[in-house]
Amino acid sequence: MSEMVLQLDIDEICRMYIDELKSVSQIATHFGVNFGTIKLRLNKSGVEFRTHSENQTIVMNRPEVLKNVSNASKRSSKQRTANNIKNYGAVVPANGPKIKPLWKEKHLKETGFEWPNQRPDVRNQYKETCLDRYDVDNVSKVPEIEARAREERWLNKTDEELNEIREKTKKTCIENLDVDNPMKNKNVVKNVRKNYKEKTGFDWMTKNPEVREKIDKTRLKNSLKKIKRILEKYNLELLDEFNITTEKVKLKCLKCNHVFKSTIDYIKYDYGLCQVCYPRNVSHFFESKILDFIIKILPNKIIESNNRTFIPSKKEIDILIKEQKIAIECDGLFYHSEEMLSNKNYHLNKTNECEELGFQLIHIFEDEWMFNEELVKERLRNIFKVSKCKRIHGRKCIIQEISPPIKNEFLEKYHLQGKDSSTIKLGAFYNDELVSVMTFSKGNISKGSKAKDGIWELNRFCSNYNYHIPGIASKLLTYFKRNYTWKEIFSYADRRWSQGKLYYMLGFELEKITKPNYWYVKSLKRIHRFNLRKQKDEPNDISESELRQEQGYKRIYDCGHLKFKLENSRTNL
């Protein structure tokens, strides 16, 4: 035995203990000696022994141990989840309805914060630890960890698993924040803005020039192959370099050799093509598809297209159905923008001329057809009274308040303007199915009004287009009038689509007709002007429209709105 001990390599023992982080037992097993022999050699060499806790940490961080623990955790995951839900009412005990409030209250009382990760000292300590270990302030920024997380969470998942993750995420958000996405919660957005401004000086990521540049470069990189296919489709040759797809570039038509300027975005959506080969002022696909649809739903009617003699000004009417006293304008966002039509009353003037002749003129913006084709089709069917949906009566429906996520999902599906921000959200249910929604809110500065006591705006109303529900608007409005304090209700009818018949039926009176207002257009999408209003940090001597024009936005005008109001004669508010 003494000979074996004498042959031990002391340097190798120290290396294994210090560099390879082997335990004394492992080294003893490697050399075939007992525990005390190795410990004695290390002690004589002046090596400082690790504590039991340190050894445990090393062992638990070994790849094979981590893998075994992970596999064991996965095997017991379902049972553990079931036990937690049964015992605590949540997948994680700390999120249980009994434990979570107690922890929250205790931590708030002791520290002034609801949770540890909200404390500045904890956040700073976390950053310092990350910087010390990884040279970054957050572990998610470590390339290896970021790549592994992406692979484990997303890349190796099946579509079924990804959908399950999305649904679980939505469910958790609804339970905790009452919305299906954290960024739909006002408090979350407020905190994100505050934290981001403290870090960068900008209150939102996309306002940061560096972030915007990265976004543009990524989009461009991802779309280069598609851009090449689009140019080949229209026989175009690119003569300029570009950084973003909304930037004007010089193009050459290979059919007729005409050189002109346009943007890749416009070309992508069938706009801004060579005007020699494509002289029409709208996307020919857009107008032709709507015309085909009208012919299909009105097979026995005479339908005229591109009529230039109907209205006194001799301006072209895209689609005309004289028997129905209805005309349709297909307003492409590029050619109907301010850049192409300098008169902001262009759409309004056409509408007025048609109304003077006893006709309703419907204006369909291209993005409405592009992104909500089925909804536009169903609305046209209703206007022409050819909808074949199931008929149910409003009196058979039950009215009750609904949650924001349910309301928003319904509005996104059945209202052209999509979801809203409303205070009161009423739903009509038929056999437990939500079939209609009406929302109310206080005055909104984006629409030129202010919140006042007892004054409400009827913000949205729509129904599931698979049903025809006579009387449902009246029933929803009556429920509001009986259950809430109100002095006046006002609402707006969009003159592009409506002449306000429903409001007259509900007892509203026409208060005024508003002037045409504008939307900003970029990448063939309309953006509400309120979202691009001038910021405090922007130059005072340059107007909002000039600033947005420099950023690649165009303006397109609507036909104005009809403002209706309903007064409560029984209140003394």
Outline the secondary-structure elements.
Blueprint: H1 2-6, H2 10-18, H3 24-31, H4 35-44, H5 52-60, H6 63-75, H7 77-88, H8 99-111, H9 120-134, H10 143-155, H11 159-177, H12 186-200, H13 209-233, E1 236-238, E2 248-253, E3 259-263, H14 264-268, H15 284-297, E4 304-307, E5 317-321, E6 326-331, H16 346-356, E7 360-365, H17 366-371, H18 373-383, E8 390-391, E9 398-401, H19 404-414, E10 424-430, E11 433-441, E12 455-463, E13 467-468, H20 472-483, E14 488-494, H21 501-505, E15 509-513, E16 518-522, E17 525-528, H22 544-550, E18 554-557, E19 561-567
Parallel strand pairs: 6-7, 8-13, 12-14
Antiparallel strand pairs: 1-2, 2-3, 4-5, 5-6, 9-10, 10-11, 11-12, 14-19, 15-19, 16-17, 16-18
Helix pairs in contact: 3-4
Explain this structure:
The protein is α+β, with helices and mostly antiparallel strands. Among the domains are: 2-66, Arc Repressor Mutant, subunit A (Orthogonal Bundle), CATH 1.10.10; 211-268, no CATH class; 284-383, VSR Endonuclease (Endonuclease, Chain A, 3-Layer(aba) Sandwich); 390-517 and 558-567, Aminopeptidase (3-Layer(aba) Sandwich). It has 22 helices and 19 strands. A 7-stranded mixed beta sheet has the order 9-10-11-12-14-19-15, with helices on both faces. Helix 3 crosses helix 4. The termini are far apart.
